[in-house]
Amino acid sequence: MEFRILGPLEVWTDDGRRARTEGAKQERMLAVLLLNAGAVVPVARLVDAVWDDEPPATAHRQVRNLAGLLRRKLATAQDGPPALLTDGPGYRIAPDGHQVDARTFAHRVSVARQLAEHGEPVAAVQEFRSALGLWRGPVLDGLSGSLLTAGSVALNELRLTAWENCLDLEAELGRHRQIIPELTALVAEHPLRDRFVSQLVRALHRAGRQADGLAAYGRFARRLADELGLDPGPELQLLQRELLKGGPVPAAPSTRPRQQAPRPAQLPPALATFVGRRAELGALDGGLAGPSVAAGIDVVTGGAGTGKTALAVHWAHQVREHFPDGQLYVNLRGYAFGPPLAPYEALARFLRALDTDPERIPGTIDESAALYRSLLADRRVLVLLDNAHNAEQVRPLLPGSAGSLALVTSRDGLAGLTACDGARRLVLDVLPQTEAVELLARITGADRTRAEPRAAAELAAACGHLPLALGIAAGRLAERPHRTLAEHAAELQDSENRLTAFQIDGDATSALRVAFDLSYRALQPAPQQLFRLLGLAPDSCISTAAAAALSGSPIAGTRPVLEHLAAAHLVNPAGPDRYRLHDLLRCYAAERATAETGPAERAAARERLCSWYLHHAEAAARLLTPQRQPLPLTAVGPWYEPANFTTPAEARRWCEIEHSHLLEIVRYAAEHGLDGHAGQLPLVPWSHFQAGPYLADRVEADRSASRRHAGPATAAARATPATTWPPP
What whole-number distance in Å separates Cα of residue 138 and Cα of residue 160? Predict the structure, then answer.
């Protein structure tokens, strides 16, 4: 089967029949799969491709239905191996046994450049012409969408670069007159592309048409000044001066790669203590499979201390042979003391590393980025952009042609790179238990962890399996060879200020608190405030509605703030409309609440949270036991949004989801002096607590409330056996 995207989307069977796709949604889905042929496209990215910014609530299900229909459609059109495969979190087009014209084009361009490099210009021109002949019009002509546009831009740039290379070779072969009509049309279509203009001016002069060459230069210079306020580049200006003098025209820059081109090797040293991450390394390896039609972009994102840089550097060293023209590295300081590194400064560093004379580095970011992409056009380079602040900082630093790859790390999700630039996204979490213990063993010594296997597991748990915390704890142990792992684990578990224990003496920048602080300080005021208040909650997991009560804000306004915190990896999604804080981040949030939120505001937040649970539990009780006498509850403020369950089944489901939180909130209310809430909370979801599995928990909740003088409701509970409450 043959897939064509270099023009309108077409699918052709092996016997020469055109297979028809069904509807615009199916076409957009197939288009984004073909732009990434051979690579897995996650369902979420397919949703973006099909609907852009306005997907329906059922988008994920519809994508799977579309995939099923498309798979059946393709299967009936050919007898070969299946073209559309389900693979992990998404789908992929399997190129084996099938043809994709964009992949064929990229392969032929690569062959042409190799022929040119080995001194075979005639054969190289033939191969370039064969590749360019595959184009039938603009990429995916007739289809729209941000993801499709991003993929189309990369392919179109590859086409134009190949065209420039081909015409340079034609000029080397003395075919100046023959290429003038083609160049005239290309300049008319791309009037600001200076390479085509210089090729046309040079060809006109070599054909004895000096006046026409000067006229072409004048048209380009005027248009460039009128539209962009710029002057032609140094090469074109030199060409004009030579034409005016009537002297020899400088030869065009050779399309053949320089034999002594600099090969930067800027990767930081790989960590000897790196462990595990096999699945993540495999996911990054997947981006190298098969020829690509555009530069790849991989984003490794995750919270502070999850080991993003360690993973990226380790993988980069493993795959260096795939990038023989060098590896570029820059720390973009997106989360660091001081401002993030400006993209222009990063570009200047890269240009100098690529042997650009500092005096010839352009003065604007757009010109510098264009020069940077030109220098990488015929090379296979790995660009590691570490600690990025946002997508805008990254975009000018992305290579623009096939063969190169950008690997980006950031605490931000960089969703814009995924949506608009086709980036693959890898979210890094904490280490599994076995790998966390292995990391401890690498630093402290395997003998110590083997001698205390249980303590090693407890120490890893006290570190929350967070690589940075594990490294700090293990580093402190390495300095104290006579201290046991059990003693250190006990210190971390029992310390009133756990975060202070995660710091290397004399190296403040290694402190876990500092790492968290950089993420927190990057937030806007509203997310900062909610993050602090989450540190006051009695549990690490909280619903969106309970978080809204904690902050005294509407649910609709709280949801995007939680999503912002999730994008910054300060909370993690834990189910529909639920979020979880890592234990150590929860300690940090509580610290920030104590330091930045006044006692009255903290007390009000705790009371709102307890009131929310109390009123929701009472609403559930009315549905589960309508015959009971409702409890007299204190009125709540305008922040309260009533429970949205309307049937006993929905109320029971809420009780089951919130069961552990209901128990914890009783202890929490009693601990913080909210006696009325502590006394009433064990009484309201009576039907739920009377169920067999929860009866012991009901007794425990009652005891938690009874430990304080929590008012008349608790007194009644103490006087009445739990198995018979409420009285008939």
Answer: 12
Other CB atoms within 10 A of residue 83 CB: 27
Which whole-number Å values give the CA distances from 317 to 379, 388, 657, in the listed order?
18, 20, 46
Coil, strand, or helix at residue 424? strand
Two structure tokens written together for 81: 């191996």
Q: How many CB atoms lie within 10 A of CB 269?
A: 7
Ramachandran angles phi, psi of 162, nearest 5°: -65, -40
Contact 536, 664 (CB under 8 A): no
- Enter the DSSP assignment of 11: E
Per-state percent for the chain, helix, strand, coil, to nearest 5: 55, 10, 35
Note the pLDDT tens digit of each residue in 291-327: 455 568 899 999 888 999 999 999 999 888 888 889 9
The answer, yes or no, to whether residue 220 has pLDDT greater than 70, is yes
Q: Which two tokens stand for residue 176?
A: 């100046």
Measured CA to CA, the distance from residue 699 to residue 690 in angstroms comes to 10
Who wins on pLDDT, 272 or 69?
Answer: 69
So what's the pLDDT on residue 716? Answer: 40
Dump the DSSP string for 69-127. Answer: HHHHHHHHT-SSS-SEEEETTEEEE--TTSEEHHHHHHHHHHHHHHHHHTT-HHHHHHH
For residue 328, which phi and psi values (nearest 5 degrees)? Answer: -105, 145
Q: What is the pTM of this model?
A: 0.59
State which amino acid sits at residue 266: Q
Mean pLDDT lowest among 51-60, 451-460, 711-720: 711-720
Which conformational region is residue 88 in: left (phi greater than 0), alpha (psi within -120 to 50 degrees), or beta? left
Gyration radius (Cα) of the chain, Å: 32
Cis peptide before 726 (omega within 30 of 0): yes
Nearest to 201 by CA among 215, 185, 188: 215
| Residue 685 near residue 620 (C-beta atoms within 8 A) | yes
Length of the chain as a residue count: 728
User: Cα–chain-centroid distance for residue 589?
Assistant: 24
Q: What angle do CA 659, 661, 667 make, to 5 degrees?
A: 115
Scan for tokens 């941000």, then name that residue: 146
d(CA 401, CA 576): 40
Task: Enumerate residues 6+ apart whose C-beta is below 8 A from 700.
Answer: 663
pLDDT number for residue 17: 84
Contact 469, 479 (CB under 8 A): no
Q: So what's the pLDDT on residue 262?
A: 67
Q: For residues 19 and 565, what is the distance between their CA atoms, to the nearest angstrom? A: 46
Taking residues 22-29, what's their average pLDDT? 86
Which of the residue ranges 90-99, 160-169, 279-288 has the most confident prediction, judged by mean pLDDT? Answer: 160-169
Return d(Cα 648, Cα 663) in angstroms, integer. 21
Q: Identify the band that residue 132 occupies on the pLDDT scale cut at 50, 70 and 90.
A: very high
Q: Which residue has the tokens 């002594």?
A: 260
Amino acid type, 535: G
Which residue type occupies 231? Answer: D
| Contact between residue 688 and residue 558 where contact means Cβ atoms under 8 Å apart | no
Residue with tokens 């290397």, as numbered in its chain: 504
Sheet (strand 84-87) strand order: 41-42, 90-93, 84-87
208 CB neighbour count, 10 Å cutoff: 10
Say if CB 622 and CB 564 are below 8 A apart. no
Q: Tokens 């390896």 sit at which residue?
A: 285
Give the Cβ contact number of residue 88 at 10 Å: 10
- What backbone phi and psi angles, to 5 degrees, belong to 496? -70, -20
What token pair was written down for 579? 């979020």
For residues 523 and 460, give the distance between their C-alpha atoms in angstroms, rounded to a whole number: 29
Query: What pLDDT is recorded for position 489?
Result: 85
Phi, psi of 88 (to 5 degrees): 60, -120
- pLDDT at residue 408 in the model: 95
Q: Which two tokens stand for residue 153?
A: 């831009």
For the stretch 18-49, what's the b/e string if a residue is b when 16 or more beta carbons lie within 10 angstroms of its beta carbon? ebebeeebbbbbbbbbbbbbbbbbbbbbbbbb
Average pLDDT, rounded, for the chain = 82
